[in-house]
Design goal:
The complex is a heterodimer of chains A (109) and B (219).
Chain A (H helix, E strand, L loop, with lengths): L3 H13 L2 H4 L1 H12 E5 H8 L3 H13 L3 E8 L2 E8 L1 H20 L3
Antiparallel strand pairs in A: 1-3, 2-3
Helix pairs in contact in A: 1-6
Chain B lengths: L6 H12 L4 H12 L2 H7 L4 H31 L2 E3 L1 H32 L7 H5 L2 H23 L3 H19 L2 H25 L2 E4 L5 E4 L2
Classes of the chains: A alpha+beta (109), B mainly alpha (219).
Chain lengths: 109, 219
Amino acid sequence: MVSPDESSGMIRTLADIDKLVHEPARLMILALLYVVDQADFIFLMKQTGLTWGNLSSHLSKLEQAGYIEVEKTFVGKKPHTMLRLTSEGRGAFRTYHKHMKQVLDGLSP
Amino acid sequence: MNQTMNVKQLERKVFTAYHGDGLFDLYVGILMIVGPIATILRDRGFSGIGSMAVHLLLIGVTCGAYMILKRRITIPRLGRVVFGAKRRERRNKVRLVMALGVSITFSLVAVTIAAMNGIIDGFGDVLGNRILALGILFGLKLAVILSIAAYLLDFNRGYLIAVVLGLGVGGYVAFQQPAAMIAGGLVLAGVGLVYLARFLRANPILEMNGQGGMHGISG
């Protein structure tokens, strides 16, 4: 049973959650990039199930926030894009993970 | 609800997906099938050097084919990924374990050959009569080393490969029969082909169309 003080503490924690990370598609992208060092567009598409346009849009938002960095290279003659989390991105994901764990543990029956 | 994001499980899922193409099983299976080729050729009158040359050539072709198929089949379908530091650390541990395994194998092989040729006194007849025990030792050592590698890599299918390879190599050494290796190789190659077929069906190649969208191409 959660006390009223604990309940309001949890609600404040929820308010602090990074909404950029909290969006399900972006959360999937960040989680995948968190567990690997780098990945390309196709890998993220396959693992998340997002369409190209949708993925591209979310990656742009994450890049603008400084959470991911994009490295454009060539594989043979074909252009190739690799993505990785920045240190800010890793920090943001870890903070989100910690907040959510606090909230969900507090809500356990 | 008390769900937490288990990043370790996610990393393992990604690693397993990347090796869900069955190519590694196929690769090991084919290596096992070509393994006794030198012995078979020598039995049929080929020279020792000729047999070994064919053997090494087939191994080289198999290794090359594995790398090419990984690049042509898996990467276009799953994309490229560079695994993180923890996975690389595990891979380094596996390399150490495998190096230890290879050292033990070479030592055992050297001692066996020396003993059977009377170079090490006193062991010749003893070992010659205990080929069965030697085969079991080789097979067991291989199965243990590869199981440790599978554990370190968190790769469940590796345990099957460890057992089949251990039985195949152990049987080959113990009974001097290529059939054990070839049978084991056929089992692993069969498993690999099943995984490959499922992988190809589940993962069409995604290609960009002219408008910047993507469509799937099966096969």
